[in-house]
Amino acid sequence: MTPQRRAVLAEVAEATPTPGGGGGAVRVAVDGVDGAGKTLFADQLAGVLTAGGRTVIRASVDNFHRPLFERYRRGRHSPVGFWLDSYDYAGCAASCSTRCHPAEMGSTAPRCMTWPVTSRSSSERSIARRARCC
């Protein structure tokens, strides 16, 4: 990792608020075009936050793809179809807001995973990435 990347991650981690006095959670979204490095950035940010003592639930929209017939109803290469039909955003948001809460980690949240990035082998992280929920 380059020094510039470390600096950006440290800056974003520093700017990430902590939950209020009532517990709760702070949600951080990483957005961008395909292939921009969103997943890598989010993984690295989770690592920085975890190393700083924060509890992190790493989630991804990738397991909320709509069925193929819905995703491609406007054509397989339709930009509008990709934007509007690829993901079940409402389902993802509902799952993350109700199941991905720190108080529920490891209990009734089967679709959510929490994992300290720095404490698992690369193969375990690979498995965890495929198991993320929203």
Structure explained in plain terms:
The chain is mainly alpha-helical and 134 residues long. It has one domain. 44% of the residues lie in helices and 0% in strands. The protein has 6 helices and no strands. Helix 1 packs across helix 2 (38-51). It is flat. The two termini are 26 Å apart. Mean pLDDT is 75; it is low at 104-134.
SSE order and pairing:
Elements: H1 3-15, H2 38-51, H3 68-71, H4 79-85, H5 89-99, H6 122-131
Helix pairs in contact: 1-2
The number of strands is 0
Oligomer: single chain
What is the SS-derived class?
mainly alpha
User: Could you tell me how far the N terminus lies from the C terminus, measured between alpha carbons in angstroms?
Assistant: 26 Å
Q: Taking all residues together, what is the mean pLDDT? A: 75
Element pattern in H and E: HHHHHH
Number of separate structural domains: 1
Count of DSSP-assigned helices: 6
Helix percentage: 40-55%
Biggest beta sheet summary:
none
Radius of gyration: 16 Å
Proportion of beta-strand residues: under 5%
Q: What's the overall geometry? A: flat
